[in-house]
Structure formats: structure tokens, C-alpha cells
Design goal:
This protein is an alpha+beta fold. It has one domain: Gcn5-related N-acetyltransferase (GNAT) (Aminopeptidase, 3-Layer(aba) Sandwich), CATH 3.40.630. A hairpin with a 2-residue loop joins strand 2 and strand 3. Helix 1 crosses helix 2. The radius of gyration is 15 Å and the shape is globular. It starts with a strand and ends with a strand.
Amino acid sequence: MQTTICPAQIKDLPAILKIVNHNILHSTAVYDYDPKTLPEMEAWFAEKQEAKWPVIVAVQENEVMGYATYGTFRTKAGYRFTVEHSVYVSENHNGKGIGKLLLIELIALAKAGGFHTMIGGIDADNTGSIEFHKKFGFEDTGTIKQAGYKFERWLDVKFMQLILK
């Protein structure tokens, strides 16, 4: 079956919402506690579109299997060439190469957009995501200890960086 990577559309938001909420409720990939609502996702999507930040999806037979995006790393002008990214795959499609397809496209978009650096903030215990990013040339640039708190425990955040140019 053919997997297509394309810009997300408003019709994709319920599937993206399902992926987001699964990660909120069952993982430390997202440090939120409460599930998002469709109106919240619509507002998030509108903000991304207004700011011209990409939101892409992996689609197979009209099913959204994952999504990826990037946006502002820090708001000060000196950071304008650095973006922070996210890649999430549906629980039913983990380990099938969907994340790879999404990240390849996201990196290409960031390069085409003239960005210099891509950052990923990853839970330090998420060895799968850390190894995944290393395969694309991301380097471990440091860990902020006990930066987050979820599931009754402190969480460390590892920053991974890819120099795009």
C-alpha cells in the first residue's frame, strides 16, 4: 500500500486529535495531562497555518497514520533560524516506517524554508525516539533534569539537534 506524505487539512484533525490524546494519556511523549478537544486542535491548526508552519500527515487509504510539524523554538529574534519539531505516529502504525517518512519530509521543508537548526525535546527515557533521531544525524546536546512532571514522577528532557546546512 502506498503511503502519501502531504499537508494536513482540517478534515485530518480528528485523526491527529486521536494520536495526540493517546500520547497524552498513555505516554511521556507529551507532557500535557488533559486530553485535547477538537476545538483546541482547530485553534492549534489555525495558528500553525497563520504562522506558515507546516503540519504534514502520513496517509494510507484515507487513514491518517501520523503527523509532524515544526515551529518556533524560542521567540527572541536571534533564534529565528532554529525550529523545534514534533513527529507522532498512531499507536497502530508504530514501527512501520511512518515516522521516517514524516521526518524526511519535515527536514526537507525546514531546509527549503531557510532554517539552520532543528531541535527535538524528547523525554530522556524514550530511547526509541532518541535512537530514531540519531539515525537522521540528530545529536544529543544536553539534558534538563526533572524539567517535567507526569504520572507521579519527575521527567528529564533530552534535547536533540540537527544542523540543517
